[in-house]
Amino acid sequence: MNFRLLPEWAEQDAVMLTWPHKDTDWADNLARVEPVYIELAKHITTQQQLVIVAHNSALKVHITALLNSANVSLNRVHFVVTPTNDTWARDHGPLTCAAIDSPEQLKVYDFTFNGWGNKFESALDNQINRTLVKELSSTNNQYQALDMVLEGGGIEINEHGVLLTTSECLLNKNRNPDLNPNDIEALLKEHLGATSFLWVEHGYLAGDDTDSHIDTLVRFAPNNTLVYVQCDDKTDEHFSALDAMEKQLKTFKTADNTPYNLIELPWPKAAYDDEQTRLPATYANYLIINNAVLVPTYNDANDERALAQVQKAYPQHTIIGVNCQPIIEQFGSLHCITMQLPRGFLAGAAQ
After folding, report:
1. What dotted CATH number matches 3-342?
2. Residue 169, C-beta contacts closer than 8 angstroms, at least 6 positions apart
3. What residue ranges do the domains of the chain occupy?
4. How many CA atoms lie within 13 A of 193 on its CB side?
5. Which of 7, 38, 95, 302 lies at a 20 to 30 A Cα distance from 338?
6. Total-model pTM
7. What residues does 227 pair with on adjacent strands?
8. How far apart are CA 29 and CA 37, in angstroms?
């Protein structure tokens, strides 16, 4: 049976959040960060179910109290209690494929997460998916753990099986040093059902620990559309790389040899932490849920234009801004802290 990774706009059972706690780098910022998670929980549970990974039982009790106080519908919330290093669910979460000929049949892949090239401790996060699948996944689903290092934020796929990624991330020797580009393509064809590849050779965000994850730069949307960040400030350190990226995107062709529809996202003003380290603010790091797209905002003059541009890409969805200023202070954003779980993932989920 041949499986293919589902595009993010496929119908979902739930979104997974791995909650921040006092034993993570979020410790000094929990008072500002947890309200963002609560807001996400509110938006998600209006459309679908929510899975929350909690570091321990005490944290589960704490989260439950927060959600109760915020009037979040707890009958739509599922908890997985298991130790965690951090909160980046996009990168330690599962990648879920559907059988091409029988889309109700799912296969849940548990790739290896090594803290973005062994930059950070990740042993606990690398065990989350096993517990998640054991406790919540439908018994109809297949599960496979793989030795290959791969993060969800490093790849995008569309409804045609075209896989979009950056060379800086997937070919980085801190991930899979024994694999060459042909090896990686072969494995992604085998496991994720990729039909072809678009390798982005340019683009980065200062402060990003992921080695240029694609979800900070370029995203797929339906109907052969690419949504990408565009830097219009020639004095900004990112201008040259992002200008080169834009030029490359214009050369990409679909299977019928036509250019992709390109939708540019505005460039937010430079943001810095207390130590004057530049933070990786990007509007590309949005989350698609059932009937809505949650878009990070940064108290920036370009926020409204970013929402309008995302609306062009997903005209059937409601576009909702979420202030992610506290999230980028840990060098990620909204998409980075979430992972969608497609329809059929959860045992007993309402169909």
Report:
1. 3.75.10.10
2. 151, 154, 175, 210, 211, 212, 213, 214
3. 3-342
4. 23
5. 302
6. 0.97
7. 219, 263
8. 13
The pLDDT value given to residue 349: 62
User: Residue 350: pLDDT above 80?
Assistant: no
For the chain, give the number of residues. Answer: 351
**Closest of 284, 155, 280 to residue 227, by C-alpha:** 284
Say if strands 106-112 and 95-99 run parallel, antiparallel, or are unpaired: antiparallel
List pLDDT tens digits, range 140-174.
Answer: 999 999 999 999 999 999 999 999 999 999 999 99
* Mean pLDDT across 222-244: 97
- pLDDT at position 114, please? 97
Phi, psi dihedrals of residue 77, rounded to the nearest 5°: -110, 130
129 has pLDDT over 50: yes
Band of residue 331 on the pLDDT scale cut at 50, 70, 90:
very high
Q: Which residues have C-beta within 8 Å of that of residue 212, sequence separation ≥ 6? A: 166, 168, 169, 203, 204, 205
User: Which residues touch 56 (CB under 8 Å, ≥6 apart)?
Assistant: 81, 83
Q: Using CB atoms within 10 A of its CB, is residue 260 exposed (0-12), middle (13-18) or buried (19+)?
A: buried
**C-alpha–C-alpha distance, residues 229 and 333, integer Å:** 14
Give 10-31 pLDDT, tens digit per residue: 999 999 999 999 999 999 999 9
The residues, any chain, with a CB within 8 Å of residue 61's CB and separated by 6 or more, are none
For every residue of 239-276, DSSP letters joined together read HHHHHHHHHHHTT-B-TTS-BPEEEEE--PPP-B-TT-
DSSP 280-302: ---TT--EEETTEEEEEE-S-TT
